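Late entry, evening session. Most of the bench is empty. Finally got around to the prediction I had been postponing all week. Sequence below, unchanged from the version circulated by S.P.
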Amino acid sequence: MSVDTANRAERAAELRNALVDEIIADHAAKGLAMRADVERAMRKVPRDLFTPGVALEEAYRNTAIITVRRGEESISSVSAPYLIAEMLGQAADALGGLEGRDVLEIGSGGYNASLLRELVGPAGSVTTVDVLPEVAERASACLAAAGYHDVTVVCADAQHPIEPGRRYDLIIVTAGAWDIPPAWREQLTDDGVLVVPLRTFGMTRSWALRRSGDRLVSHSHRLCGFVSVQGDGAHQMRYADIADGVHLRLDENQRIDPAAIAGLLAQPREEAWAGVSLPPRTVLADLDLWLAARLTRGPGEFVVLTAQESAIKSGIVAPAWRFGTPAVVGRDAFCYRSALRWTDRMFDLGAYAHGPKAATAAGGMVEHIRAWVDAGCPSPVLCVLPAHTPPGYLPDGVVLQRRHGRIVITFTPDEKRRP
């Protein structure tokens, strides 16, 4: 080994360990703890070998690295390390560990497959599949360069069975999905686990779903974002521009008039507040799904508001999160969850609205927010059933109809988490 190669390897190890330390701190800030087996794998696998042509410092930043673009769209990436760690933790927790497990990864890049190979050990197996030939070829080359010669790389559309008759303890999807094809459930063992970034109401969560007969039931979930699934499972998300730098994400066949909403947004803002005092670790991603489930059943259209930083600085909107905030559009009002209002180290939740009935709309959203707090800030439970399941066999909750299945989201009040 040359001096330059040795120095690079030493520097890569320093950066890798610093990155893992950063991820552990990020987990702790979210109230999570990184599993020891996941930590060992992340300290061992050289991420820089899966990002050829990228500087060492960039390879070990805690962000995604885009590897394939189609025009303006990113269609493949090496996922953000913190998110990889969270999803691997979800998988290992749901299965009680990954050692000896057979794993199918859908959406390949090589890095996550190598981490999985470390976690399953000699008695387990890892198969990684991608629909894009250039991605599969790149994954094969990177895995070989890193010394992972026993990972099986397949170029195929994973909406269909990869190896008919074979089943896996874990299927982990590293691309944003809008639907769950039957092949994913059918390739799981009887108590196998699917970890998938699933889009509902235009908002993505990484769900760990355990198979129970013909249904999948959630074990855990994490906030996340991924490039979209390609191939037969692709589902185009639509956006509507309602002001300079302000957009609405439409993902459930909503029908809106952008010009009419722009007219509402131009009117004076009304606000309402829940009058609560919540700690920083409150999981507001759970509140957003709570709002989606309830606002969808009411008048108006539920949408997701996104905004560029310039639109927020200029005061056009002040959303809770500029990358995706729950909102509802009616004929007489446009309302969304507001930025937080802090007092010392606690915060209050509110709603902003525009239009002739803005005060009523803001007050209505705040009633839903208070109901969530009063219920103990519950987390959602997600169940996926076949598309033909009769209504009487569905769990209570809001139902989203997909081509291949029915997705049911429900909440159970949590007495222990009441503020």
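Two things to note before I forget:
The mean pLDDT is 93.
The longest strand covers residues 188-200.
Will write this up properly tomorrow.
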